[in-house]
Amino acid sequence: MSNDGKQQQGWFQRNAWRFVVAAESAAAGTLVAFTVAMMLKNGGSGGGGAVEPYIAALLGGGGGLVGGFCLSSWYGRPGRYGWAYAILFSLVAPPLAGAIAGSCLLPGVGTAVGAGMALWTFYYPQSIAVWAACLIAIHLHTRRLRARQFSGGHLAGAAPKHCL
Asked: What are the TM regions of this chain, as residue ranges (predicted)?
């Protein structure tokens, strides 16, 4: 393997936890978007079922994947400030994921509409509960992954140094 290949493989190993956060954020985006769409479909105020839940789940997952990778460095930090960062950037995550998903459908207008629609996340108690559970799970899991990485251990799926 060329030296360039080893450098690329090293980059992936050092940042493997970011891909895990992106995957977990995609799952969280799917769950939260599905919950919001179900609340709107079942007669919640506004919307009236404007978006089918499965379409919302697909868009939420896609936006969550990209948004999770972009915001991944703010999750998993230790201490009080770690929780503050995780909460702050979890508040940013739904509008960011909505803007990303909206841009995929209709660049420009879709970006603004997607970001605005994502604010429904914080309207229903059920979607707030799902959002909070996802925040806690992602932050705690990422904290464990980062601690393992920085203590010299390897992440699941990443080969130990002696195997390279």
From this structure: 16-39, 54-76, 83-110, 122-140
